[in-house]
């Protein structure tokens, strides 16, 4: 069984080896990786990984009016690693698949859901937990506090990434779900969420978030480390968004994702340490990784010489973790969103 993951990166070489080792251990067989105008040596790292047979690397230089990730996915649609795969899974480098069944691999998840043609893997948001300084340590061990399994708001907490059977039912990849559904194939599509529930027919052609107010991650989840350390988050803000080129992240993005209500170390049940050590043992990869770590430290210090970045840094330090809203408060928000503006 061939499972192809599609990844788009910019200036994230410091996190790349952990991400690849984890997902190889999780059962991904092929990695198609696009790089976007990197300054930290990520492209050289990907070239070395390609030489070692770990990834297929395609540079994706800008400008990207539609966003670098969309430009990459358009290329991916035509690539042999995508066309020849049995299953497809677009991911970001801050997203780690965490399977809770069997041997914790994607194959075990598919065995648990044999009738599924698409499995939307629900996000679990992992917060900052008061960690200020960036350090070269595994993300999956350093950040262990997350949102509760059941949230009523924000709706973005219920977003997902889709593991989809590559059977010709969709013509294009998407960031969260496959696109361009083939009309005469939709009746045969079975969307089952990552708690094992069959989803309504509307998910075959639309929707990018799972129903709020219930546990959507009983069998598997995507650990979403969207924030990381405060220092790392500023570097991420400086990079910009992958989906909307030129958009800046800020306080709103931080507040909607900084949940630290429960401890979740379940991802550590999948041991990828040996694969990670194997990659770091390669002298060239080790040098490139160290250079990417140094670049990240240096970039943060350079940002601190500019007042807008210092101001954002201070606001992040003063902002408490996100508060879980009651069902009543969340319902009130939804009601306000659907009413006309009469002010």
Describe this entry's structure for a reader.
The protein has one domain. Helix 1 (13-26) crosses helix 10 (283-303). Helix content is 34%, strand content 16%. It has helices spanning 13-26, 42-51, 68-77, 80-83, 106-112, 139-142, 230-239, 251-255, 273-280, 283-303, 307-318, 327-338, and strands at 3-9, 30-35, 56-59, 87-91, 95-99, 118-125, 145-146, 160-165, 170-172, 179-181, 220-224, 262-263.
What key attributes describe this structure?
343 residues; two-stranded antiparallel sheet
Number of helices: 12
- In total, the number of strands is 12
| Strand line-up in the sheet with most strands | 3-2-1-4-8-6-11-5
Helix/strand/pairing category: alpha/beta
Question: What general form does the structure show?
Answer: globular
SSE topology string: EHEHEHHEEHEHEEEEEHHEHHHH
How many structural domains?
1
Q: Which strand-content bin applies to the residues?
A: 15-25%
Low-confidence stretches: none
Overall pLDDT, averaged?
95
Radius of gyration: 20 Å
Largest sheet: 8 strands, mixed
Helical fraction: 25-40%
Cα separation of the termini:
57 Å
Brief summary of the model shown:
With 343 residues, this protein is α/β, with parallel strands linked by helices.
Note the topology.
Elements: E1 3-9, H1 13-26, E2 30-35, H2 42-51, E3 56-59, H3 68-77, H4 80-83, E4 87-91, E5 95-99, H5 106-112, E6 118-125, H6 139-142, E7 145-146, E8 160-165, E9 170-172, E10 179-181, E11 220-224, H7 230-239, H8 251-255, E12 262-263, H9 273-280, H10 283-303, H11 307-318, H12 327-338
Parallel strand pairs: 1-2, 1-4, 2-3, 6-11
Antiparallel strand pairs: 4-8, 5-11, 6-8, 7-12, 9-10
Helix pairs in contact: 1-9, 1-10, 2-10, 7-10
């Amino acid at each position: 069984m061939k499972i192809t993951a599609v990844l788009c990166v910019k200036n994230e070489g410091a996190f790349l080896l952990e991400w690849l080792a984890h997902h190889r251990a999780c059962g991904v067989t092929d990695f198609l990786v696009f790089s976007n105008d990197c300054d930290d040596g990520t492209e050289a790292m990907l070239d070395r990984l390609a030489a070692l047979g770990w990834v297929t690397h395609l540079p994706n230089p800008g400008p990207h009016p539609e966003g670098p990730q969309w430009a990459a996915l358009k290329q991916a649609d035509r690539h042999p690693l995508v066309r020849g795969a049995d299953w497809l899974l677009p991911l970001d480098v801050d997203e780690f698949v965490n399977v809770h069944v069997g041997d914790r691999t994607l194959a075990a998840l598919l065995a648990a859901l044999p009738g599924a043609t698409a499995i939307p893997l629900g996000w679990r948001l992992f917060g900052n937990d008061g960690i200020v300084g960036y350090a070269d340590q595994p993300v999956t061990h350093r950040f262990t506090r997350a949102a509760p399994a059941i949230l009523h708001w924000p709706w973005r907490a219920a977003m997902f990434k889709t593991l989809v059977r590559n059977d010709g039912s969709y013509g294009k990849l998407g960031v969260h779900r496959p696109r361009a559904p083939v009309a005469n194939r939709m009746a045969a599509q079975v969307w089952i969420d990552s708690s094992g529930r069959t989803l309504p027919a509307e998910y075959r052609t639309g929707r990018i978030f799972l129903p709020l107010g219930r546990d959507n991650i009983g069998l598997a989840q995507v650990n979403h480390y969207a924030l990381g350390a405060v220092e790392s988050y500023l570097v991420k803000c400086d990079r910009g968004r992958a989906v909307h080129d030129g958009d800046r992240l800020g306080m709103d993005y931080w507040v909607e994702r900084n949940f630290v209500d429960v401890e979740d170390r379940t991802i550590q049940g999948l041991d990828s340490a040996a694969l990670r050590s194997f990659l770091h043992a390669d002298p060239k990869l080790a040098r490139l990784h160290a250079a990417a770590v140094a670049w990240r430290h240096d970039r943060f210090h350079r940002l601190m010489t500019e007042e807008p970045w210092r101001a954002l840094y201070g606001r992040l330090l003063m902002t408490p973790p996100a508060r879980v809203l009651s069902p009543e408060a969340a319902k009130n928000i939804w009601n306000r969103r659907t009413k006309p503006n009469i002010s």
